[in-house]
Amino acid sequence: MYSLPSLITALSLSLYGVLIFNVGQARRKYKVSPPQMTGDPDFERVLRVQQNTLEQLIFFLPALWLFSFYVSPLWGAGIGAAWLVGRIAYAWGYYQAAEKRSIGFGISIISAFVLLLGSFVGIVLSFT
């Protein structure tokens, strides 16, 4: 019943793992040693992708599971998949230029808010 939201969760965490790896690669490429967090703008964009995705995961994962439990695991997984596509588009765009991150950010933030709002509806309806 919850296999699809579980898959989305595992894929989301895997995506985050790739982004962590990318930061390590960028540190070597742009010679930005820890604990430095600034340097070459190309490095800073890679770091921001990782940091912003972490910020989004904290919001997304509970919303995904609340929605899946109170509304629908199938719909939760579908909306969660849209979030994943948005995060990939965000990373891909931001790696190229800061101006190219907007579409991916929009897809992922709207998906997360749909999950949260749907969760509220499902929770409220569960009281009746």
UniProtKB/TrEMBL annotation:
SUPFAM superfamilies for the chain: MAPEG domain-like
Could you tell me which InterPro entries the record lists for this protein?
MAPEG, MAPEG-like_dom_sf, Membr-assoc_MAPEG
Matching Pfam families, A to Z? MAPEG
Report the superkingdom from the record. Answer: Bacteria
Compartment(s) of residence: Membrane
Say if the entry is tagged with keyword Transport. Answer: no
- Organism of origin: Aetokthonos hydrillicola Thurmond2011
Alphabetized UniProt keyword annotations: Membrane, Transmembrane, Transmembrane helix
Task: State a single Gene Ontology molecular function.
Answer: glutathione peroxidase activity
Please state what the protein is called. MAPEG family protein
For this chain's UniProt record, which GO biological process terms are given? leukotriene metabolic process
- Which residue ranges run through the membrane? 6-24, 57-85, 105-127
- Record's bilayer topology term: Multi-pass membrane protein
Presence of keyword Disulfide bond:
no
Cellular component terms (Gene Ontology): membrane
